[in-house]
Amino acid sequence: MNAAYKKIVIKIGSNVLTREDGLPDLKRFEHLVEQLVALKKSGKEVVLISSGAVASGRSLISISEKQNAVAARQLLASIGQIKLINTYMQLFEKQEMLCSQVLVTKEDFRDRMHYLNIKNCLEILLQHKVIPIVNENDVVSVTELMFTDNDELAGLIASMLNADALIILSNVDGIYNGNPKSEGVEVIREIRAGQGNIESFITTGKSGFGRGGMVTKLSMAQKVAKLGIPVMIANGTTPDILKGVLQDTLVHTRFAPEKNTSGKKKWIAHSENAATGIVQLNAGAKEALLSGKASSLLPVGIVQITGEFKKGDIVKLVDTQEHLIGLGVAEYGADKARAHIGEQKQRPLVHYNYFYPVV
Q: Sign of torsion, CA 240 242 243 245?
């Protein structure tokens, strides 16, 4: 087992935990829990991001096809979350191990203080040898408050905890270099930064019972790898998959990590939806920020400011064509920033330590 990976975040998709008829696959649950316990007993810290609440709800109640989709999801998730966590609790108890439930919404990650509260909660659970089971609170998360899916949540948690590895378990072996059903198509074993147009290989269909598809997985995996954390996408229906991935004995796709970034930048990287204002830059400021050198955003490089923000808020930085070039933390509010647009010898609006480039 890879000794370098001490803290591992593992996301299990609903298509792994669900049978073809849409009901929970209890044998699969049991086998996955056995693998998680084996990892824990080998000295690893393990955080589990688990889908499956809605599928678990489906096994307990049937609802009319005419029911509003959001209301149906709330109903199934509310009932199913209890069943899901009880299933895990009983299986972990059989292995003499404690698990806990952590339900979150996208709102919990928008504010730096809330973000640190969740981080502290997960860290105290890990210190006490508990396996946290994190899921989106589908009961209150509707429409714009929702994560794209649990892959997005898994990437955020891995970044937040500065994990040594993120493993995404789906019902496919990894990312293929074409249509998986076509002859001669193979799993791409490793993806590195700037490696061609990987998106062109991926079909946009969603997996059976989840919200997300391979496109979301790819985009999330690239973002997390860019932050310095290796990401593996593998088939959770394969026996002993976790051991196989960590020992590199089973086929999967690995996203090679780039240079590790600071905890604050990891938070900023995942905070695009939390941005409260837009700052438009001129060509010189854009070039300086993207040069790879330590450059802060000075008012002399600002063309226009849209929206309201205060000190400590996340802002989007765009170029003159409105293309997003990065995210940053504002050093002061929008009113003061507007007053100094284009001026020299003023304090930076975004310090380079709190700037994250997205291009």
A: positive
